[in-house]
Give the backbone structure.
Amino acid sequence: MCESTDVSNVPGVAALFEKLPKNWGRWGDDDEVGALNFLNPYEVLRGAAAIRQGKTFTLQVPMGSPHGDPVWPGRTGAKRMNVMDRGMYVAGKADALAGGLQYADDMMVMYLQGSSQYDALGHTWYGDQIYNGFDAMTTVGGLSKASVLPLAERGIVGRGILIDMARFRGKKYLDRGETFNHVDLVAAAKAQGVEIQKHDILLIRTGWIGKFYKVSAEEFYDNFLEPGLTFSPELVHWFHEMEIPNLVTDTIANEVTVDPVSGVQLPLHNALMRNLGVTFSEIIALDALAEDCVRDGQWTFLYTAAPLKVVGGSGAPVNPIVIK
Ligand code: UVW
């Protein structure tokens, strides 16, 4: 479970973000897709120009696995249930359609953030306002502003770059609570022989989700503290100046669970997602892609993703496709 934190000395996040940039109003008062606005037709073509070999990769983790899916503590993985199958016909509880057609049917119960997913820009906030200054009351009963629907309708296409932080640090996966920042990302990119460019979709591998499939659930969730990016004003400025549209990681929450300096939990959800409109894709499978990038030395590619069009959703499952 999530490590308990003494919050008595935790500063308000508003104070933490004072004087840091916001993109509210930059794309109009009604904007609900934030930094995806950077992904214009030029950026789509820049992504397409990164295709060199025709190799494809799908980045969703399995959904509804009988061994459980990786989820934020307190959520549960997707549960798929058969409601029709051959057994129903054999037991005489269902009739074939005229002509003999029989069928299998199933349903699924899941958290929309319970698998590989996109967070809606209205998914997290502090104070009374969500992304773009919309009233936080617009989240009640379903997101009527900045839901996942506008992200899904737009789709995400651009040049992706994979930064393998685990490999850069010489590890199979980063340690519990291990942090890194934008300076480390730039250094890792240099070691890989690539450069993070303005408007790149930033994929960061920590190995953490891969670890979920290698260790017991008890070990994975024990004193839950994910590794990841850590908050600093400089990091927020870097994301702002680089105009990063989308942060994609193989962790459940895209950042270190608790900022070791301030004690604030998930500060980048607010500093990047709420304030800058950077879209977050989480629980993304990056191990196979990383292995291939090591083999062929190509760390950039066309990244495409179409989250499901869930009306009012605070997030939606996704199976991104990468083409190298
Ligand atoms: C929380 O909302 C706590 O996390 P996530 O963005 O991973 O869904």
Summary: Residues 2 and 224 are 5 Å apart (CA to CA).
